[in-house]
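Thread title: Can someone regenerate the structure for this chain?

I was given the following input by a collaborator and told the matching structure tokens would be attached. They weren't. Posting the sequence so someone can regenerate them.
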Amino acid sequence: MTDLRDGERLRRSVESLSDLPIRFVLGRHDTNDFSRADIVMKNPAVPADSPYLAAAARVETDISLFLRFACSPIIAVTGTKGKSTVASAIHFVLVGPHPKARLGGNIMDSPLRFIDDLAGDSTPVVLELSSWQLADVAGLGLLDPQVSVVLNIMKDHQNRYRCMEEYVADKRLICSEQSDSHTAVLSYDDPVVRAFAEATRASVLYVSRGKLPHGIAGAWLDGDIGRDNTDGERLFSADRLKIPGRHNRFNMLAAATALGAFGVEKSTIAARLAEFPGIRHRLEFVAEKRGVRYVNDTTATIPEATVAATHSFQEPVHLIAGGTDKNLDYRALVDLRAESVHLLRGSGTRLMEEVLTSAGIEFAGPFSTLEKACASARSRAAPGSIVLFSPGCTSFEMFDNEIDRGERFRRLVQRLPD
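Best answer:
Regenerated them for you:
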């Protein structure tokens, strides 16, 4: 195993593998390790043009190996934002009729962990796939999900891509190799995603926040009701959902449509979606302290996601945001719905400050620690309001990653006095 991070940062991972015959090369890479290996397992975050990968005879990823050997029917989900929630909701519903259904991919669980547990070719698998994971299987002829889902395309990871079209092209791979017997669920509202219909042989179902044109197959949001566009039948009612936010109504609409395409009964979909509790780190209710509710939305790593989060509550919102830039456009922040804004330091924060200042939105900070930012938000939050941690940036100047960031917020909140 070779990693540019040193042994101290990887201590827990190394300890968990101590009973295996692994040679660790940490804090550096050695080209000979790559050229002599039978197979190099690539982490999705490693750029495809890495000279170390060029030295390898064969490069695989956990996704490519899984697709080579698993025979399970697959529902694959991607999008700039919402893919973890939608993939998790699909899996939550599936385990009703299919108790052994599994969930993996970008949602922090490699499908190789459960490949040996799959029962032949009958166990459904839901894969959340990032643009990087999709790029790693491009041209291999491996990805032909029974149902693919594309939620949206927004500007993201532009510190990694040379242009937006490269990012779009990687997202398009989720449906470009689908066969004509399978289904692609695409956002009708996003013109970039809608155009993916031209790149797939799969049957297309559209999902929309507004009424779909007559004759367009799919589903749409009729206020708080998700409706099938073919017969107008109700798929779910938003007032029964446990997760907040209009954007999550759209996410559940996409999940319901994908599940219907997979063959799940509509009554089962509606009943199970009403019980879906949401997932950790995505508008996650952490605790109520002295009448103030604290919500962890650390996976909001683009400004559009943060804006959507602030519009998810009727109560006054006190926002904690800021972090590391990914070459993004922060002008969406002019639509924030927040009583107060409290910023963490970072390269993205400096760009946030410019937008907020020009829009006349006051803010506190930037603060050098999460504790100080949280204390600032607490000082403004009256009982009945919400302190929302929704950064709108990535995390690497102050935290190991977005999950580490969210876990630190959760621990900080849990220590607050009741």
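The mean pLDDT is 92.
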